[in-house]
């Protein structure tokens, strides 16, 4: 397993070399504004910490976050470089990408899929052209993707009400679409499985393509990586179809015990509307029993509470725990434990509200302080 992690680390650093060359302060600080160089240094640290987390098996949850960096504009913009303090500073453009959450104890295949997703998102950010909502030459959808992810609007300034309105509208629509999307349980599982297969195959194809010595052929293979990965996914699913048909027949007898699509959507909505965000909830690797995991989620949602006062108290507890600027990750496990050195806490799947309140009253402030320090030092990403 250690050898696999070492290989994953070295492969990711090789695939991310264009990003390192773009943001490394030793390379770009001489011709880039100091503010942009400072942001790039933090982005470099964040990516390095994330790569290390993927290369190992993290015992703590890694919460999703957005990383922003600056890259020089194209050759035309370089001709308009500005002289400042005796240096020629190139115009830069802001880019961003997502670092996905990593559950505690994630297995190698999960971390491999997350690595492929990171490489793909960073490559898309690097090739994206200057943001333009009405570009006459769209760059294969990368501009739209970058616009939706970063929420940036051309020509907008910090505090611009139009930019804030755009951010709020797009984020709320995307969130509600994902939250209330009425897909069946089978469709949801199939989609998640297909996405994981695609990320895994994309990583393998990109890893082989980057070894190509001919630069032109290498670029062609990288540009074609998504199509090849999707063909591999389709072939994999075609081979599994006969097996799944027999498996589905065996599962029909257990349908009454399965959670219905409506119940799943309502449960997921209850977590959010109750004040806690699903991205901050993780399972302990030691809690493998699905019934216990479902009970933990049900208790977080307050589904077993009958008194409105108890429900109000639970919702306000979760709002306090997730309150900015330092929301705390929560791990559903088997015991109450405050892990100050990792900046998160664990609760038993069958917790009682009174015990939860007493535990958080004692540990929450200290946990938030320790997590803020860890984030600042990039031990936790």
TrEMBL record:
**Keyword Coiled coil attached:** yes
**What are the coiled-coil residue ranges?**
350-377
Disordered, as annotated region: 239-262
Q: Which domain of life is it from?
A: Eukaryota
Example GO CC term: the record gives: mitochondrion
| UniProtKB keywords | Coiled coil
Q: Does Coiled coil show up as a keyword for this record?
A: yes
Please report the stretch or stretches of sequence annotated as the DUF4460 domain: 7-75
PANTHER family for this protein: T-CELL ACTIVATION INHIBITOR, MITOCHONDRIAL (PTHR31596:SF1)
Name of protein? DUF4460 domain-containing protein
Annotated source species: Perkinsus olseni
């Amino acid at each position: 397993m250690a050898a696999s992690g070492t290989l994953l680390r070295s492969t990711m650093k090789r695939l991310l070399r264009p990003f390192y060359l773009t943001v490394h302060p030793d390379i770009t600080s001489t011709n880039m504004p100091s503010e942009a160089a400072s942001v790039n240094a933090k982005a470099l640290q964040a990516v390095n910490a994330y790569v290390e987390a993927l290369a190992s098996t993290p015992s703590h949850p890694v919460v999703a976050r957005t990383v922003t960096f600056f890259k020089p504009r194209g050759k035309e913009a370089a001709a308009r470089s500005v002289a400042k303090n005796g240096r020629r500073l190139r115009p830069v453009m802001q880019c961003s990408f997502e670092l996905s959450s990593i559950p505690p104890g994630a297995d190698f295949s999960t971390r491999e899929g997350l690595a492929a997703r990171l490489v793909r998102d960073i490559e898309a950010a690097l090739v994206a052209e200057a943001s333009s909502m009405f570009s006459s030459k769209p760059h294969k959808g990368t501009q739209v993707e970058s616009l939706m992810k970063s929420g940036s609007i051309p020509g907008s300034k910090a505090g611009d009400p139009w930019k804030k309105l755009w951010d709020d509208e797009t984020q709320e629509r995307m969130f509600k679409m994902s939250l209330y999307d009425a897909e069946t349980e089978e469709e949801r599982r199939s989609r998640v499985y297909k996405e994981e297969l695609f990320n895994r195959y994309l990583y393998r194809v990109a890893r082989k393509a980057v070894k190509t010595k001919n630069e032109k052929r290498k670029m062609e293979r990288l540009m074609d990586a998504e199509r090849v990965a999707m063909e591999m996914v389709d072939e994999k699913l075609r081979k599994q179809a006969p097996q799944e048909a027999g498996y589905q027949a065996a599962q029909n007898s257990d349908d009454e015990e399965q959670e219905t699509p409506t119940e799943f959507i309502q449960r997921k909505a209850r977590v959010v509307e109750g004040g806690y965000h699903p991205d901050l909830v993780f399972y302990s690797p030691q809690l493998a029993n699905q019934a216990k995991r479902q009970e933990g989620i049900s208790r977080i949602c307050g589904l077993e509470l009958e008194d409105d006062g108890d429900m109000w108290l639970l919702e306000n507890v979760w709002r306090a725990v997730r309150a900015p600027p330092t929301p705390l990750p929560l791990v559903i496990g088997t015991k109450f434990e405050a892990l100050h050195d990792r900046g998160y806490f664990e609760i038993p799947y069958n917790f009682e509200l009174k015990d939860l309140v007493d535990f958080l009253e004692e540990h929450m402030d200290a946990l938030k302080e320790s997590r803020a320090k860890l984030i600042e030092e990039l031990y936790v990403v």
